[in-house]
Each structure stands twice: as structure tokens, then as C-alpha cells.
Amino acid sequence: MFRFLGILMGISVRTGSPLALDIAPPMWKLLVGLPLSEGDLIEIDKDYVTGIHYLRDLANKEEEFEAIDMPFSTPGAAGQEVPLSSTYLRINLANRKQYVQSALEYRLHEFDHQVQAVVEGLAKVIPVPLLSLFTGEELRTMVCGHPDIPLDMLKSVAVYKGVEYTSPLVQWFWETLESFSPTERSLFLRFVWGRTRLPRNIADFRGRDFVLQVLDKYQPPDHFLPESYTCFFLLKMPRYSSKQILIEKLGTL
Predict the structure, then answer these.
(1) How many angstroms separate the CA atoms of 2 and 5, rounded?
(2) Cβ(130)–Cβ(14) below 8 Å
(3) What are 63-110's pLDDT values in tens digits?
(4) Phi, psi at residue 119, to the nearest 5°?
């Protein structure tokens, strides 16, 4: 499964077709060959790091350790307990630092096997050694596109039919999109193109224009919703009479 995910990610990079993947930022670092640090673990599990720091910083408080009575193991990502030593069964004042070191080491390398499988999948599509030239964030952008839907990029590939780009209706349209939250923009993009993110750059549109077509067949226009043809990146819109009507109609998509 992870190898197949790597193949899909490689295809995304090759074709410029973004994937909507919700993967923690540290995982992208691992994919480009960068080691994880304690700070990366804090980003995905702050409470865990806080807890083991508490154990590390306890000194001359053997009574507290006896009250805690914790096994020399750590919870894994799937919720299972993972033993960290064949020598120690419980954490005590003397072995607490070794426990902290072992626990951090395990959590920082917990997904090495899965990451390696993803990399093997990537290698079937793209030259993996080149990934070391990028940061984790840059790889995420190459695979997933822009999560914030930059409207300047969308405007640069827009063409208009049945209306001039200088018309009030077109201005209302772009002003409405600018007022949308990132989530609302993603929903709009899914409505008109069947995806939630834009490609990483203009070249990755590969000649595909966003077509905004205004038709007069909708009568009265204020009673109709826009239509989309996702295969053609096409939005058909009635000639709305006001910006407020346009906001209401786009907000229902």
C-alpha cells in the first residue's frame, strides 16, 4: 500500500496533477532524506514530548517514580505498547534518562519502514536521488500543489466567454473568491475542476484554461445557480444582477 502511494506521488510530480494528501510535515522531511529532530516530534505529538521531559527532569524524587509506576515501554502510533528494553521492566530514577533516550529514538524512527516503502514507489517514477535537492515543504508542494489556492495564478489562466474581463460581473466574481476562506476556495475549485488544489506553477496547467462563461439562457438569471463541467475546467454562470446575488449563489456550491 505504501509503495503504491509512492507511485501515485511520483505520477503527481511528473504530471503536475496535485494530490490532496494530509500527511504530517515531518514525513515529508523523511521522504527527502532529512533526519527528524525532537522539534519535529513536538509538532505532531507535543503532549508525548512534554511527558518524557517531565520524567527526564525529575531528580532525587524516587517517591514520585514509585507513584507513577510506569513500564519501560512506550505507546506506538497504533496504540500498542512497545517494550524498549530487555533489561528493564519499569522506569525508575536510575534508568529514566535511558528511557527518555530510547523512547525518543523509537518515536523518531517509528515510520522508517513505511517511508522506505513510499520512497521505493517514488523511485519507479522519478529519480529519487534528486529529492535530496529539495526541502520537505518543497516536495509537499510538488506533490500536493498550493493548499491556499492563489487567485493570482487562477486569474492568469482564466478566459472569458460571453462577457468582458473588465465587466462588473467579472470583478464581482473575483472579489467574491478573494473574500472566501481557504476551505471555501478549495470547495469552489472542487466544484469547477474536481480537485481541491491548484498545480504548483503555471506550466503544470499544461495549457488548461479556467473558462468562465456567462450565458443569457438563464431567465430570470437571479433564480439560477452556476453550473460546472469539471472535465473542461468550465464554470457557466448566469448574468447576475448584483454582487450580493453572486455571493449568495457561489456560497451555496
Answers:
(1) 5
(2) no
(3) 766 677 788 889 887 888 888 988 888 888 888 889 899 999 999 999
(4) -60, -40
